[in-house]
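Quick review question:
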């Protein structure tokens, strides 16, 4: 098949997704405003100049339509409802599979009437929808008009050869953390306030007062760490904290294993890939009580669940884990077992392959086991 993708360029999610198809012999083309080389993929720059943003969007749409007319792909896979999803809708290309990521469903469509209309156009016109949690699919269907019968949960997936329990002692020591220290790892982006890194820092300061072994590692894959470095200094925990930027994906499994407790407590999120990777490394977890996290984490069974921006609950969960190494180990083992059963990258991409084949050839079955009605208990899998 010749496949066209509209997506965020120079992003690991985009690259892993498209290269999976390219490595299986498909002719893959990426249309993006963030162009960069991708192995085995032809990348097309759809950037456009213009005095105002609406004109730039329009000029890029003209480029998208022209490229699709030239390429004549069998299918278009549009990633990210905001921007790219608009271009996918107004390109008129079908079949068009829309893959949603997170705040493109949870936040942007509800900022104003125009963005809501555009989101409803894109979600309502796609031939199939994929997203990485039941919750994000449900919101896209109930609030934005996507078809629940053609909505499928597809996880970004985990490479189990890389993300697995391993010895990270040397990495811990390189950071200045001792073998007996308790390391709390927060790897969320520095770009968005809804990741609540400020709350994690405030909680860390309180934990340090009561647990002398506590150490803290912050790694943001995007954005400027300087404001958070200032918060850490003001909180008086610079001596027990390491704050870094993006950790290369090849090294991220080592960083996860270097932590004793993984922390991800946003106010808005789909299924965080870092959460799945932490589970695949057998880590103990503290997550916020979002529906997307509760699909995988059950309070007291395989992790701790706290309300978003509730500093007291976060402090209590961190101290509980510090005092109970048996719980850390038990929850980590449960997470590893769950991850191995459901999070494999190849298994999830095979779901996408089935969706593409069904739309292009009309043959084969929809992956009903990943469909929203089945996941919500409204239907039984075929």
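Suggested answer, residue by residue:
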């Amino acid at each position: 098949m010749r496949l066209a993708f509209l997506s965020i360029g120079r992003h690991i999610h985009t690259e892993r997704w498209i290269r999976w198809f390219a490595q299986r012999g498909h002719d893959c083309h990426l249309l993006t405003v963030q162009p960069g080389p991708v192995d085995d993929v032809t990348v097309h720059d759809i950037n456009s100049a213009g005095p105002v943003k609406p004109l730039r969007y329009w000029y890029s749409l003209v480029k998208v339509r022209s490229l699709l007319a030239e390429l004549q792909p069998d299918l278009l896979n549009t990633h990210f409802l905001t921007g790219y999803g608009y271009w996918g809708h107004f390109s008129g290309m079908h079949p068009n599979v829309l893959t949603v990521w997170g705040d493109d469903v949870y936040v942007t469509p509800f900022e104003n009437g125009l963005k809501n209309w555009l989101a409803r156009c894109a979600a309502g016109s796609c031939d199939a929808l994929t997203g990485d949690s039941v919750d994000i699919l449900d919101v896209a269907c109930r609030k934005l008009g996507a078809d629940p019968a053609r909505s499928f949960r597809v996880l970004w997936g985990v490479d189990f050869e890389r993300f697995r329990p391993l010895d990270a002692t040397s990495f811990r020591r390189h950071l200045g953390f001792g073998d007996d220290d308790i390391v709390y790892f927060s790897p969320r982006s520095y770009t968005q306030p809804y990741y609540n890194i400020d709350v994690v820092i405030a909680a860390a300061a309180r934990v340090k007062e009561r647990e002398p072994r506590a150490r803290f590692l912050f790694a943001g894959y995007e954005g400027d760490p300087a404001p958070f470095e200032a918060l850490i200094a003001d909180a008086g925990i610079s001596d027990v904290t390491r704050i870094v930027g993006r950790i290369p994906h090849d090294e991220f499994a080592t960083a996860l294993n270097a932590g004793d407790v993984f922390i991800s407590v946003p106010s808005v999120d789909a299924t965080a890939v870092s959460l799945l990777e932490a589970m695949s490394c057998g880590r103990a977890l503290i997550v916020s009580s979002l529906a997307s996290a509760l699909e995988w984490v059950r309070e007291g069974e395989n992790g701790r669940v706290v309300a978003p921006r509730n500093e007291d609950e976060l402090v209590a969960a961190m101290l509980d884990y510090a005092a109970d190494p048996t719980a850390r180990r038990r929850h980590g083992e449960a997470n590893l077992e769950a991850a191995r059963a459901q999070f494999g990258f190849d298994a999830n991409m095979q779901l996408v392959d089935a969706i593409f084949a069904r739309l292009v050839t009309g043959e084969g079955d929809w992956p009903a086991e990943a469909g929203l009605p089945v996941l919500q208990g409204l239907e039984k899998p075929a």
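Why it works: The two ends are 27 Å apart (CA to CA). The chain has two domains: 2-157+344-375, 169-342.
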